[in-house]
Amino acid sequence: MGSNGALTFDVEKNPNAVPATEREALLQNPGFGKVFTDHMVTIRYSENTGWHGWKIEPRRPLALDPATLVFHYALEIFEGMKAYRLPDGGATLFRPDANARRFRNSAERLGMAQMPEDLFVESCRALVRFDRDWIPSSEGASLYLRPFMIGSEVALGMKPSSEFIFCAIASPVASYFKGGASALTLWASENFTRAAPGGTGAAKCGGNYAASLAAQAEGLREGCDQVVFLDAVERRWVEELGGMNIFFVFDDGSLQTPPLTGTILPGITRDSLITLGRDMGLTVREEPYGMDQWQKDAESGRLREAFACGTAAVVAPIGKVKGRQHSFTIGDGNAGLIAGRLKAALTDIQFGRAPDQHSWLDRLF
Ligand code: PLP
Ligand code: COI
């Protein structure tokens, strides 16, 4: 800590930082998660010393012993959050306190050290301020932050780690989906589930994503964009996508999203859209929705829209659903009106175009 109580990071500037002209060219068309800024934050934890050694350093490979716990027992958690460029040239994070809380919860579920929330948020702020020239200014683009933590003790015994490395990297991003805004086709996974009661579904740990990739590969083979997972017990209730929550919009204007029963990631976008939907006067239910009912409602026209949401994906309309036992189109198969209104309400706040009525922004400069 510095004398004013603020965290002070040891700073090592990247001697090979990307030159400004090259950076500007990269920011024109960054895609998702392929371009990275010049620096990263690292912080260490050990049972004896606690959290220590906070650094801003050049983005570079982490050198780890091959017997490090993370390689063997997938001891890893992560977060996803974005920094947005504001109309006056400043920048803001969106609800970083919520990411910090979820990071702690994920750590608790995996038996990892729980990083204090202010340390987590300060690390993200410090990285964005240091690499501020990497925040894109183009429409809809932002700087995606990926804080993560690994069990770094060198041991093959199956045990909780006594050492951890926290690292935060940053990546300028545009749309998560190639081709931008067209409606998604989902593959309803009947062979594979993502999370079971008592498991790690509500934690943001790498293992959940690894476990969903065979289903994603199956979905891609079937010509779909993303997988929608059903509950592991009855194989009936719609849960979420591999990296997004899901909402349904009905003909009476109401919204519904699956409840947080422990097998679904508690999305910060989900939570924000519930609030914004209610602000618009819409009824929003957190209730289970069955796969068969989904098809019936889509066919009868009772269901008007469905959309996925998350930090990376923002709001992504769903046009079609396919599976071994299901095949249906939602509405006319294109982006719906309510999804568009909610996306605009959310992104107008994030990019500083609308008042921040819920104090969600964390202004950086
Ligand atoms: N569900 C899963 C499995 C995710 O990976 C994500 C992305 O972070 C979400 C939902 C959406 O969460 P958030 O809105 O906090 O990004
Ligand atoms: C995010 O939206 O931040 C995620 O972590 C989802 C991931 C699939 C990119």
UniProtKB/TrEMBL annotation:
It catalyses: L-isoleucine + 2-oxoglutarate = (S)-3-methyl-2-oxopentanoate + L-glutamate; L-leucine + 2-oxoglutarate = 4-methyl-2-oxopentanoate + L-glutamate; L-valine + 2-oxoglutarate = 3-methyl-2-oxobutanoate + L-glutamate. Its EC number is 2.6.1.42. Its cofactor is pyridoxal 5'-phosphate. Keywords: Amino-acid biosynthesis, Aminotransferase, Branched-chain amino acid biosynthesis, Pyridoxal phosphate, Transferase. InterPro entries: Aminotrans_IV, Aminotrans_IV_CS, Aminotransferase-like, B_amino_transII, BCAT-like_C, BCAT-like_N, BCAT_family. Signal peptide: none annotated. GO terms for molecular function: L-isoleucine-2-oxoglutarate transaminase activity; L-leucine-2-oxoglutarate transaminase activity; L-valine-2-oxoglutarate transaminase activity. It is an enzyme of class 2 (transferase). GO terms for biological process: isoleucine biosynthetic process; L-leucine biosynthetic process; L-valine biosynthetic process. PROSITE patterns: AA_TRANSFER_CLASS_4 (PS00770). Pathway: Amino-acid biosynthesis; L-leucine biosynthesis; L-leucine from 3-methyl-2-oxobutanoate: step 4/4; Amino-acid biosynthesis; L-isoleucine biosynthesis; L-isoleucine from 2-oxobutanoate: step 4/4; Amino-acid biosynthesis; L-valine biosynthesis; L-valine from pyruvate: step 4/4. The modification N6-(pyridoxal phosphate)lysine is found at K204. Acts on leucine, isoleucine and valine. NCBIfam families: ilvE_II (TIGR01123), PRK13357.1 (NF009897). Belongs to the class-IV pyridoxal-phosphate-dependent aminotransferase family. This is Branched-chain-amino-acid aminotransferase. It comes from Mesorhizobium waimense.
